[in-house]
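Customer escalation, tier 2.

The customer says the design service returned an amino acid string that "doesn't look like it belongs to this structure." They asked us to rerun it and document both sides in this ticket. The original structure tokens are below, unchanged.
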């Protein structure tokens, strides 16, 4: 499953500009809701350092995307883990 067959979340225009698809805007709204809820739970007792919170969530997204990218290139179609079942 290569990037050529993957769903795109941006509409590319001949001018070089691009815009978000409705699906991309929806994904952003849903992901923002998850992060907001997580932040509220973390701050239930004490405020968090927002710069650190931001770094942790960005790193989580990077880890997931990197892992999935490697998985898609290295594993046969349909396999989700390097570990045997």
């Amino acid at each position: 499953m290569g990037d050529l067959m993957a769903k795109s979340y941006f509409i590319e225009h001949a001018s070089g500009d691009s815009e978000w698809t409705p699906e991309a805007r929806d994904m952003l709204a849903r992901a923002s809701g998850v992060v907001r809820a997580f932040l509220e739970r973390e701050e239930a007792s004490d405020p968090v350092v927002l710069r650190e919170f931001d770094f942790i969530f960005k790193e989580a997204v990077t880890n997931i995307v990197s892992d999935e990218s490697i998985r898609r290139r290295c594993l046969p179609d349909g396999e989700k883990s390097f570990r045997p079942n």
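Tier 2 assessment: The sequence is consistent with the input. Residues 13 and 60 are 31 Å apart (CA to CA). The chain has two domains: 1-45, 49-85. Sent an explanation to the customer and offered a walkthrough call.
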